[in-house]
Amino acid sequence: MTNFDLISKSSGDTLNIGRIIGENLTGGSVVALTGELGAGKTCLTQGIAKGLEISEGYYVTSPTFTLINEYPGRIPLYHMDVYRLSGSRDLEDMGYEEYFYGDGVVVIEWAEKVDDIIPAEALLINLEHIDNNKRKIRISSESGILSIIRVLKKEGF
Ligand SMILES: Nc1ncnc2c1ncn2[C@@H]1O[C@H](COP(=O)(O)OP(=O)(O)O)[C@@H](O)[C@H]1O
Ligand SMILES: [Mg+2]
């Protein structure tokens, strides 16, 4: 497991971190976001959307009533928020495999609720509230994230 810890000092930082991650993602990636309410999961997803070249005309928000929001881009983004689910069984019922093992990038908020179905090679990102504007962000993965880490470092994170 490769880990990289960084500090975000503002929502703008988190957007930039997300953008850099999005720019370096390839189709078929699963990004599992964990962390409390207000930690910045949706903010990071908005950055990832930028990096995937999702049109600025879309406002990326947590899909609450629909389980999944789809956005076309350089690579399509499938954004899920599983907060209201009781567990991964609910995802099985909606045929999640089609998204997880498809060509798009899947970003899941509250991934801790469905950790039994997160693929081993997923990009795991935990966000932790430090104070009003500060967040600790830990990126980890079993598969190649060294290039993402290199770019994040180069951009000053
Ligand atoms: N460094 C930071 N990173 C991300 N969000 C931040 C940061 N500092 C303040 N915020 C604020 O915290 C809130 C995070 O909300 P959101 O991204 O919806 O969290 P979550 O999806 O984890 O519930 C936003 O209002 C955002 O402006
Ligand atoms: Mg959210």
Annotate the secondary structure layout.
Blueprint: E1 2-8, H1 11-23, E2 30-34, H2 41-51, E3 68-71, E4 77-81, H3 88-93, H4 97-100, E5 105-109, E6 123-129, E7 135-141, H5 146-154
Parallel strand pairs: 2-5, 2-6, 4-5
Antiparallel strand pairs: 1-7, 3-4, 6-7
Bound molecules: adenosine-5'-diphosphate and magnesium ion.
Q: What can you tell me about this protein's structure?
A:
A hairpin with a 5-residue loop joins strand 6 and strand 7 (135-141). 27% of the residues lie in helices and 25% in strands. The protein has a single domain (2-154), classed as 3-Layer(aba) Sandwich (Rossmann fold), CATH 3.40.50. It has 157 residues and is an alpha/beta fold. The chain has helices spanning 11-23, 41-51, 88-93, 97-100, 146-154; strands at 2-8, 30-34, 68-71, 77-81, 105-109, 123-129, 135-141. The two termini are 20 Å apart. Magnesium ion (MG) binds next to helix 2.
- End-to-end separation: 20 Å
> What is the domain tally?
1
Q: What is the structural class?
A: alpha/beta
Helix count, DSSP H or I runs of 4 or more residues: 5
Ligands bound, unique? adenosine-5'-diphosphate, magnesium ion
Output the radius of gyration: 14 Å
Which spans of ≥5 residues are poorly predicted at pLDDT below 50? Answer: none
Could you report the average pLDDT, rounded to the nearest whole number? 94
**CATH homologous superfamily annotation:** P-loop containing nucleotide triphosphate hydrolases
Order of helices and strands: EHEHEEHHEEEH
Largest sheet: 7 strands, mixed
Spatial order of strands in the largest sheet: 1-7-6-2-5-4-3
User: Fraction of residues in helices?
Assistant: 25-40%
Net shape: globular
* Proportion in β-strands: 25-35%
The count of DSSP E runs of length 2 or more, i.e. the number of strands, is 7
CATH architectural grouping: 3-Layer(aba) Sandwich
- CATH domain class name: Alpha Beta
The CATH topology name reads Rossmann fold
